[in-house]
Amino acid sequence: MKRLASLAVLAVLALAPAAHADMKALEEGAKKEGELTWYVAHYTSEGAEELGRGFTEMYGVKVNVVRTTAQVAYQRLLQDIKNNQAICDVFSSTDVGHYVRLAAEGKFEKFTPESESKIVPAFRNFDPGGYYHTTSAGLVVITYNSSKVKPEDAPKKWQDLLDIKWKGKVSTGHPGFSGYVGTWVLMMKKLYGWDYFEKLEKNKPQIGRSINDTVTALNAGERQVAAGAEGSTLFSAARGNPLAVSYPTDGSVLIIAPSAIMKGTKHPNAAKLFMEYLYSVEAAKINAKHFAIPLRPEVPSPAGAKPISEVKTIRPTTAEIDKGIPEVIEQWRDTFGN
User: Fold this and answer.
1) I need a surface site. Which of 51, 127, 213, 292 has the fewest CB within 10 A?
2) Mode of pairing for the β-strands spanning 108-109 and 252-262
3) Which of 21, 88, 106, 22 minimizes the C-alpha distance to 267?
4) Quick one: which of 84, 47, 97 has its CA closest to 67?
5) Between 268-278 and 45-59, two packed helices, what is the crossing angle to 10 degrees?
6) Residue 56: its pLDDT value, please?
7) DSSP state of 222
């Protein structure tokens, strides 16, 4: 028995240098490549830029951060592909349907980060094929201007936004631009039918593009309540702005946002190293600082945010997102005229 235990220890020790050497080779290769380009819709511009700087500080490799809404990033990527241009190295959208389509067309490099085993189990193995991986998670909740709306008067469930008392006081993003909004719209349709949005239209919501535009609308006092992102709202509130969140009793919409390495990338080592970095404790701390759900269990939930274990969450399936978001974008334009 002792001999078997000793052999097991020796086997582990024998493997350790090889694993370390692989990461070292990846780092050396990334430094030679010098940079990577990241199309990202996961975070606010500030959050994405800080993650890029963190990677550069850690490895000395420049990150060209191209932060847009999910649908704009996707259209830009499709244009690159059409023109045979390998610009984007790592693609991070909030619309899972983008990954289903691109993976089926063979546009991604198959790669599973070694560090994926260290993240919260619920977010591992998102794609059984190994082409795209969860790198961000957040919630769509009801948000409000706390200087104009008392906590006891804030909407408690999604259907409360349809109350006539909120006419001219609601803000949303646009599913044709934002993956967060597209998933929220699809979930509301699944729960309540398209009639939900026909009633919402009667309340004349202010419609931005990104879900983060709701933060601007609430801060400016242009609107009082919104279907907003928990993370960007709480981040703004932490800076002293009069914002608060209400977790709907019928479910906060959970957004799982993946990343993938593009096939034919000019910076394969830098792209792989960046994917490893997105699962690091350092990246999780930056995410928590910007009020995203940290993927590493060692990093606590942001101050003021409910732990995800205490929140009732709902989300469409990947298949529903892939088929449904293009459909609701068209329905949205028919209903709201934009």
Assistant:
1) 127
2) antiparallel
3) 88
4) 47
5) 110
6) 98
7) S
